[in-house]
Design brief:
Blueprint: H1 7-30, H2 37-50, E1 54-55, E2 67-71, E3 74-76, E4 90-99, E5 102-111, H3 117-134, H4 143-156, E6 160-161, E7 167-169, E8 176-180, E9 197-200, E10 203-205, E11 211-213, E12 220-222, E13 228-230, E14 233-236, E15 243-244
Helix pairs in contact: 1-2, 3-4
The structure holds 2-amino-4-trifluoromethylsulfanyl-butyric acid and cobalt (II) ion.
2-amino-4-trifluoromethylsulfanyl-butyric acid binds at residues 57, 60-61, 63, 68, 77, 94, 96, 105, 199, 201.
Length: 256
């Protein structure tokens, strides 16, 4: 069953979303050569707790961090640790915060130092594919319309969509129905109704789509070793434009 949020629920989700997005921005500012991923994770956890919220990911199915931090060929679910960011790395940070009974969830890929134009393009296309997708995130469309728009945009730029992991409904649980794949068919999937809240999160590979999970049970990497980018916001379906519940400030977009 897909839960529909009341006006009161939405107010609480705005609050969770704001804290979540501020944690993303804080993490993005820390993405610099020499910084360890566990230092970013600690800053994210301390910030979320300072806001009276809880890190949504910590202990979720046994996950050991408050952020997922995935570097270069790592796609998602990188476990924070002693690894230090190097010049030229791209760093995907995914965070979630729970407060007032509701979750926020968002992610972005940040650049450390100098990267190639092709890698910049990967990050930009990944981010823009989210906005292409949510053009269809409104009453009267279906989940497949969002999915198809993301896929078409990404593939038109010569990149590939990760299939094994998808976006999702979100609310009092981090993962709710429906699944929101980043590939799909126009006119297919559940109908979008005002009051639905979903996390739309394209994961885009520069090379082939194939991914594998490492023996740590979490880290997802590209099989071909090429870079991957991730971008995510929590949104509310309305009668008109979707409302982005995780504000965009500090989402890694360097073009504005
Ligand atoms: N943000 C991820 C998602 O959208 C969740 C991370 S999994 C966790 O599904 F275990 F780290 F929480
Ligand atoms: Co998510």
């Amino acid at each position: 069953m897909i839960s529909l949020k009341t006006a009161n629920d939405v107010e609480l989700m705005r609050k969770a979303g704001k804290i979540t997005a501020a944690a993303r921005a804080l993490a993005g500012e820390m993405v610099k050569p020499g910084v360890s991923t566990k230092a970013i994770d600690k800053a994210v956890r301390d910030f979320i707790v300072s806001q009276g919220a809880k890190p949504s990911f910590l202990n979720y199915n046994g996950y050991p961090g408050s952020a997922c931090i995935s570097i270069n060929n790592q796609v998602i679910h990188g476990i924070p640790g002693g690894r230090r960011i190097q010049n030229g790395d791209i760093v995907s940070v995914d965070v979630g915060a729970y407060i007032g009974g509701f979750h926020g969830d968002c992610a972005a890929t940040f650049i450390a130092g100098e990267v190639s134009d092709e890698v910049k393009k990967l990050i930009e296309v990944t981010r823009q594919s989210f906005f292409e997708g949510i053009k269809f995130a409104r009453a009267g469309y279906r989940v497949g319309d969002i999915s198809h728009a993301i896929q078409a945009y990404v593939e038109s730029h010569g990149f590939s969509i990760v299939r094994e992991f998808v976006g999702h409904g979100i609310g009092s649980k981090l993962h709710e129905e429906p699944e929101v794949p980043n590939y799909g068919t126009v006119g297919h999937g559940p109908r979008l109704i005002p009051g639905m809240t979903i996390a739309v999160e394209p994961m885009v590979n520069m090379g082939a789509a194939a991914v594998k999970v490492l023996s740590d049970g979490w880290t997802v990497e590209t099989v071909d070793g090429k870079p991957s980018a991730h971008y995510e916001n929590t949104i509310l379906i309305t009668k008109g434009e979707p409302e982005i519940l995780t504000p965009l400030d500090g989402d890694g977009y360097y073009g504005k």
